[in-house]
Amino acid sequence: MLATLGFIITGLCFGIFAYTFNSLVVHKLKLKVSTFSLAYYALALALVTWGICAAIGGNELLKRSVIVGDAFLLIGTLCMLNVWLDKRRKTWLWLAALVSILLLYARVAYFSPTPALRGGILIFNTQTTVAVVVGLLFTIIWLPINLRVAKQVTQKIGQKDMNTIYSSMYVTATAAVLIFLAARRIVTVVLSFVAIGICFVMLIGSNILLAKIADGHHGK
């Protein structure tokens, strides 16, 4: 039950963040980063999938849910890369898609997931190699692009001073994700999830605030 609630609530936070960013920030500021929101919708789907499968239970279903979640993560990563790559470098996106397919194949064929429910909490027992690869995806792709978008947004509304605060939320959320990936104890999983949830509730609030500032900025 705890796993189901944790994953679904956090997944909803990702989904609401994606929706508010796209509807309140991207459209108002006319930013060309629409796939940024799609990346977080993909993460939301991954977490909701894990939550539903944790509620149903069964080792085989849990294993398959991890693979599905990894696929959503890779799709989200491609969406993130699309934000960064301009039209002249879209060939790299196709290369990244091919690499993603190979990574997913390796996950299925050589690094089969071994998740387990303990005390109502889903422990992924992620192999070190897989944890390192996922960690690198978040630290060298997701985090830099998050920071780039944060800077772009705050500059667009003429509030450069907000960039440090806005960016720190993404940094903290990324750190919590990395802790979650390495977690082997129930308390670590719970605390990392709470930290991720808090960060994204704050980011949702930031989207609302940024939209109001943008309205005031354009109204002058």
How many angstroms separate the termini? 50 Å
Tally of discrete structural domains: 1
How confident overall, as mean pLDDT? 87
| Architecture per CATH nomenclature, i.e. the level-2 architecture | Up-down Bundle
CATH class: Mainly Alpha
**Total count of helical runs of at least 4 residues:** 7
- Arrangement of strands in the largest sheet: 1-2
Estimate percent helicity.
over 70%
Q: What Rg is obtained from the alpha carbons, in whole angstroms?
A: 18 Å
Order of helices and strands: HHHHEEHHH
CATH fold category name:
Rhopdopsin 7-helix transmembrane proteins
Structural class: mainly alpha
Q: How large a portion of the residues is in β-strands, by DSSP E?
A: under 5%
Largest sheet, described in full? 2 strands, antiparallel
Describe the structure.
By secondary structure, the protein is mainly alpha-helical. The protein has one domain (2-219): Rhopdopsin 7-helix transmembrane proteins (Up-down Bundle). Helices cover 82% and strands 3% of the residues. It has 7 helices and 2 strands, in the order ααααββααα. The chain has helices at residues 2-29, 34-56, 59-84, 90-109, 128-156, 163-182, 186-219; strands spanning 116-118, 121-123. It has a two-stranded antiparallel sheet. β1 (116-118) and β2 form a beta hairpin. α1 packs parallel to α7. The longest helix is centred in the last third of the chain and has 34 residues, at 186-219. The protein is globular and about 50 Å long.
